[in-house]
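This follows on from our talk about sequence and fold. Can you supply me with one protein entry, sequence and fold together? Could you add the entry underneath, on a fresh line?
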Amino acid sequence: MEWNFLTAEELAGSLRAGEVTSAELTDEAIARIERDDKAINAICVPDFDRARTAARDADEARARGEDRPLLGIPVTVKESYNVAGLPTNWGMEPHRDYMPAEDAVQVSRLKQAGAVVLGKTNVPVGLQDVQSFNEIYGTTNNPWDHGRTSGGSSGGSAAALASGFGALSIGSDIAGSLRTPAHFCGVYAHKPTLGLAAGRGMVPPLAPAWPTEPDLAVVGPMARSARDLTLLLDVMAGPDPLTFGVAHDVTLPPARHERLRDFRVLLVDTHPLIPTASAVRAGVDRVADALVDGGARVERHSPLLPDLVEAATVYTQLLFSSSVARFPVETYEQLRTRAAGLGADDRSLDAVRLRGMVSSHHDWMEASNRRELHRHGWRRLFAEFDAVVCPVTPTPAFPHDHLPDPRERRIDIDGVEYPYFDQLVWAGLATMPGLPATAVPAGRSPEGLPVGVQIIGPMFEDRTPLRLAELLEQEIGGFRMPGEPASPA
């Protein structure tokens, strides 16, 4: 039996039935990593000895009659999470050897659920790129085309899943860092509602692992099936036991509907600030056809949709104001000088990014107030619709581009070049108001590259986009990963 490409749900069933042991699953996963990861470079910090010990412990626990949600399931963890005994450097050379003393809260939850951690997955420097490469661990390649990126910043996790290196992974998302790699690599990811899953211990090197409430950023699950996303989200969800967890637990409401024909869906595939590549539009159309065939109510336009230009502007300002928080004073002053030279009528996203980097607290508060208007607009929309389906990024995975200054990079959209960071507008649509969004594979481009969409749902109704993702998976059907056998044998 080839176990490496089965879902976590399927593996759990086989473990319960005694058809396989965790030790066997773990050894097979490690063998595949050792055989194939030289070409992919997804697993930057292997932890095979401890994984084998954890697998044996899981088998012994099962023999005693224990059964936990992830008992014996091999998984990976994004490098940016603290794992006691393993380096956490975020790809930053000065912190190459930083070793945290404690596990991040989500790593603890994985272990408490019985998961077997195979190792950590690669990231971009400081998690601040749509690609995953750094001087310490090198470049992670897309499993479908090694000349292209796997995405970022959870690119190592997505590539690992697509390559059969563990059944689940955990990542993080502030600018599509869960959704974009999933879209590029043909797997599933879920950006939870802001604040749903505790992020303590997912911090830069040397930063104290204290409970915080970061603006925009979330931690979340990645998997090879939509149902596995729900399985892992149930492990991850809940407040930090040091803060809100002292007083309350989280109980998510059920999905609004169980049947496809009961869903009301708004599809959006064009953005006023950047075009959508034909391959991505085809993916949206494929999802639209599946929804219609399943009897769902589908609309392409609604006056209730918050203004996309305003949404992108507010998101960009909030995102880039936080991205420079730790910059040296002299760098900040250089940015202030550049921003002062902008024309008053320059409303490009490049200008918004630069102004955001040097925004005052007053500016930030104004932008945050505008965000609240958008949140209210989304509430009104979700009274009429259950979900919004739209692109994750304008293109499929693009060729590696490691120009040191990202401002000089360009993305090619059907033969026309656009500023590199403009591609973030689709990710920001859900991130800025803090909404849940599930990335779902929707087929392949003419070049054979994966193409996905994201399903945006109402705040704290994460089970609604997740359930719609499950139904779409049933309608569209999966497609095999590179090297995956046609059927388990």
